[in-house]
Structure formats: C-alpha cells, structure tokens
Amino acid sequence: MFEARMRNKNLFNYLFIAIAAALLFVPFIGWVPLFDWDEINFAESAREMLVTGDYLTVRINYEPFWEKPPLFIWFQVLSMKLFGINEFAARFPNAVCGIFTLCFLFWIGKKEVNQKFGFIWVVSYAGSLLPFIYFKSGIIDPWFNLFIFSSLYFAFQYLNRQHRPSLIVSAILIGLAILTKGPVGFMLFGLTLFIFLIFKKFRVSFTWGDVMLFLILVLLVGGFWFILQISFGNFGIIKEFVEYQIRLFQTQDAGHGGFFLYHWVVILVGVFPISFFALMGFGKNSIQKLNTDTLLWIKILLGVVLVVFTIVKTKIVHYSSLAYFPVSFIGTTVVYQFLHNEIKIPKWLQLSFIGTGGLIAAFVAGATFIEAYKTKMVDFLTDKDPFAAANLSAQVNWSGWEFLVALILLSGVLSSMFLIRQNYRWLSILTLFIGITLFSYSTLVVIVPKIEQYSQHAAIAFFKEKQGCDCYVTTLGYKSYAPYFYGQKMPAAHPESNDLEWLLKGPIDKPAYFIMKNTRSDEVFKNYSDIEKIYEKNGFVMAVRYPKNN
C-alpha cells in the first residue's frame, strides 16, 4: 500500500511538472514570425523536406546543406505534419523539449539529493532568462544540450555502479546529440569525461568490452545518417562538416564576432538569476547525500563549455547554452543551502541582484519608449545608419502600458531582496523566480512582437505577398532565409534561377522581385537600369525586373 502511494505521488509530481511546463512553453510560440538566421534556416529545411519528400537530405534553397544533421529538422517535419507549415510548428519541438528537460532535472535532483532539491532545480531553471526563452524558440540547441547533458549523467552512473544499461542509454543519447548538431557533441562529452578521469587519476572501474559496446552504439546511432549519405555517394558531407567546424574555430563566421569573455558575460547575465547564486557555489558544498563526483563532473562540464567557446572565434549567444545545466545545478545547491538556513546571501550578492535586475528592466523599459523618442533617434541615426533610422520609422502601435513588463522584473527582484533581509527564505526565492518567469513570458508576448515590426516585419510581409506568385524572389546585398520560408519557394524549373547575376541581367522568363536595404538601393538602380523600384518601407526597398518580352 505504501509503495503504491509513493508511486502515485511520484507520478503526480511528474504530471504536475509536465503540465506546468506545457503552460509555460507552448502558448504564444507562434505569436511572432521566425527570426533570421537560425530559426528560419531550420524551419525552411523542414519545409523543403516536406516539399521534396526527401527526408534524408537537409536542404536550403533546394540545395544540399551539410552543416547540420537532420534530427531536429525531422522533429520539425513531424510538427509541421501535425500543425501545418507555420511558426507554431517550427517552435513546438522545443516546447516539448522544455517539458522533457524539467522532468529530467527533477528526476536527477530527486535521485542525487531529494525531491525538494529536484523541485528547486526545476523552478530555478525555468525561472531564469535564457533557459526559459530557448524553449519557446525554433533553434537546435535545447535538444542538443539535453542529449549531451543526459548522456554525461548516465555515463557517470555507469562509472559509479558498473551499470551497463546506463552505459547503453548514454551511448544512444550522445549518438542522438551527434545526429542533432554534429560531432561537436561528442567532443564536449569526451573532453568532460577525459578531464574527470584525470582528476580521478584514472582510478575508475570499467571494462574494455563496455568501451567497445559504447563506441559501436555511438557509431550506429550518431553515424548512421553520415554513413548513409556516404553510401549514396555524398562524400562531400565529411569535407563540409570539417571545413565548417574549422571555420567556426578560426574565423568570425557570418560576422558573429565578440570580445574574449563574451560567453562568460552571456551566461552570467543570460542565466540570471540562478547564475548569480552559482557564484557562491564553488566553495565547499555541505549538502548531505550529494555525491562529490556528481558535483565534480558538472563543474568540469561548465569549464569545458566556457573554455571551448571562448577559444571559438564565432561568438553566438546560444553556442554556450549547454552551460545552463551546470550553472543552474551549482546555483541550486546554493539556494538549497540557503533555504535550509545553512548559508546567508551576502550583501554584495543582494546588490548584484538589484543592479543587474535594474539594468535589464531599464533596457526593456527603454524599448517601450521608442515611439516617444523616435523622431530624435531617427534624426540622430539618419546620417550614421540610414537603415536603422528607417527601421525606427515603422508605424508600431504601443499602448503606453508596456513598460509595466519591466516593472514585473524590478518588483520581483526588489521584493525578493527585501524578503531575504526579513529572513522569509522560501517566499523570497519563489518571489524571485516567479517574477523572472512572468517577466520573460510577458516580454515574449508583449515586447518582442513590437520590436520585430521595426526589424524584419516589412520584409516578411513582402515575402508573404509573393506566396504562390509565378516569379522569382530574392534579397540583394544581405543574406536571408526568409524569402524561401515566407515566400513558400518551390523547386525552380529554370537551371539558372539561383544565379543572382542571371536574375539581374540574364534573359529571365518571369518577373524577378528583389528586396534590399536602403543603403544599397542607389547603387543597384544605377548599375541595373531595367530594375524598377516598387516601394520602400522601414528601410527595405522592394524592386522588380520584368522579362524583356513582357
């Protein structure tokens, strides 16, 4: 009877977390158009799979795209089959990932410490800025990170207990990580494991037979798509992957550069507030039952992610997102001790919460006053950056109450710090994380759609107008995947239709529409006299070239 009650209680806990996660991550994910590059890139690859019926080849503009394996795109294909080709379907797989992630974190926390620790970890992870936002996005990283982190967890379960099923699960999961984003997943896994073995002076129990079993499973799961492509004669896939990874390490790919400690700042501010608790978590840990090896490999993982992506020349926010797991775990150990009256939150950390929360709130609040100061900003930017100035001229309907979103964050942080001073420990933590969650939710629903209208909305609207049009649509002077996804581009019948010079000067057989930034338009119209301007909106210039016989 007791065991049955416990099973029912455990089931209720997971059901509660899953429902709460679904309510957080599913609503409004189709509220705003997809953003270039990554969101539209992956969604377009999924759409082209549906159009061509070829589910083994990842394509962009109906040409092979070897930079990413297909697993996440397959998730999007399945979602689009259920919900149609739209923003909701493109982002739905990550909402599902959010549900699995929170349940998995609860399971680990309960197993490593206790049920209370598991709930705190769930609340702290979902209640931090970027972890919450990523589960409402259409990028690859949430699934990629979950596969790597869970694979590491089961690998160390094997090392602790010689539990072969854990080894098998670990191999399958890291194979899925490779199938999601490529061999970099295995590199991060291997570096973490290797450094752990160094710390342990290689005094761990394993058998070489188990190592061979692990590698065979990783090869079968993670490599089967690569092997399949090679068997079809696509030998270039390996070359493309290697060149792409080298380019990321050695150059600022796609113009995504940044300062040396870029990812350190991103993690500290982006994983606010649990990242600030984690600052206290590198001393002696007093949580009973917490295996010291668990804390060791989690800290090693954090170090590996920070070092690797500090070395990588390309700086993109989500590259270091695997660090959210170790940061949130370390921060949760601090919160757990605080809630059990084992430690205090020092004044310097309380002031850091207030300062950082205030800056983030000020930034968001400032965005809500764009309309009030638009004329001055446009005048200031007209000579310095005409495109940005024209972006700001967009007509966006602000109600005037959007600044309250920023007050949610500020009031949550201030109230939490006040409650800490009054020694209301549990209430202070709940106030902080619930406040951040409400702020993140409100920002995505209220603020982001309006900001999108300044940035890409005019271009997206133009591409949508051309859906079903017997014409060519492309960008000039800047790269975008939006013409393909939002123009619902079909496979081209003319062999030269992807040649920009042919569209600009060749004997086209149907109208060719171009969209460019206003900083490029004068040069284009000067050099290509048969291109006609249609209209200009929010910094984007729309133009057309008609066939000579029309």
Describe what this molecule looks like in 3D.
- With 550 residues, the protein is mostly helical.
- It folds into 3 domains: 2-339, no CATH class; 348-455, no CATH class; 460-545, Translation Initiation Factor IF3 (2-Layer Sandwich), CATH 3.30.110.
- It has helices at 2-25, 38-52, 71-83, 87-112, 115-126, 129-134, 141-161, 164-181, 184-199, 208-231, 236-250, 262-270, 274-278, 292-311, 324-339, 347-367, 374-384, 386-392, 404-421, 425-455, 457-465, 482-486, 500-505, 518-527, and strands spanning 59-60, 63-64, 472-476, 512-517, 532-537, 540-545.
- A 4-stranded mixed β-sheet has the order 3-4-6-5. The protein has a two-stranded antiparallel ribbon with strand order 1-2.
- Helix 4 runs antiparallel to helix 5 (115-126), helix 8 (164-181) packs across helix 9 (184-199) and helix 14 (292-311) packs across helix 15 (324-339).
- The longest helix is centred in the C-terminal third of the chain and has 31 residues, at 425-455.
Query: Using only CA atoms, what is the Rg?
Result: 25 Å
The biggest beta sheet reads: 4 strands, mixed
| Count of DSSP-assigned helices | 24
The overall pLDDT average reads 92
Strand order of the largest sheet: 3-4-6-5
SSE order in H/E notation? HHEEHHHHHHHHHHHHHHHHHHHEHHEHEE
Number of strands: 6
| DSSP strand content | under 5%
Secondary structure category: mainly alpha
Number of domains: 3
Q: How many angstroms does the end-to-end distance come to?
A: 83 Å
Q: Which percent bin holds the helix content?
A: 55-70%
User: Outline, from the CA principal axes?
Assistant: globular
Low-confidence stretches: none
